[in-house]
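Contributing new records

If you add data, match the layout below exactly. Sequence lines come first and carry their own label; structure lines follow with theirs. Keep one chain per record. Anything else will be rejected by the validation script.
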Amino acid sequence: MSNRDASGRGPAKEKGASGQAPLLVLGKITEILNAFTLHRPSLTLREIQQETGLPTSTVQRLVTNLVAHGFLDRADDRIRIGARMAYWAAAGTKDLDVLAVVNPVLKDLRDLTGETACFFRAEEEYRVCIAVAETRHALRREMAVGRIAPVTVGSSGRVILAWNPGLADQALGHELPQLTESTVTDRDELRELIKQTLVEGYAITVGERVDGASGLSAPVFDSAADLVGALTVQGPTLRMPREKCFEWVDVLVEHAERITRALGGRYPA
């Protein structure tokens, strides 16, 4: 198929949804802004160039302009998203329905992994499922909106406890329930696992809530860096052995970060 316009004089320009050809410079600016992540909030010019693949001169020119207009902030040789962007984001996320952000991400995560994707939040000393995209496999571990479990069991509970120390102290202040032979019931052991989750940024559990079921969870934060909930992939251990869970860590964390960014959130300092 020809890539020339109707006159045959040159390449046809791509058009956006509005029918207008997109401005090339906006695409380059988007690439620069996308180079910053919650895990890499500050970058040097060289790191931005390496991440985007744009010419060094282009990066220098655009970053200088972005700093001048508040899109980026600069301290010595480090550059980060500008504080003014948080002001704009606050207006964009005001009254934003969390589930409207979460549900599309759950479906994408389900389609990528083939397993059930859920979102949990804390309710007193329980974790409750507030959204789910069910696997299409016939063999599944049933999950539904409203399903609750003790916050001390499973990967989502571990994530919730890791970023909610007050709740962790409360839950660990009494005897821990045992749902399976693999449930962690030793409070000192669970404290160490919570610390490990906080360091690693995710949690993997196998058979702690239900025999033969695995879970992989990562945190989602709001604009105050407070925990919103835990994004989870779960399924039969037959399809999700611990090795497979480790393979999906990056995918899960990226999707959790996608929700955090859509909510105007940020990771705790």
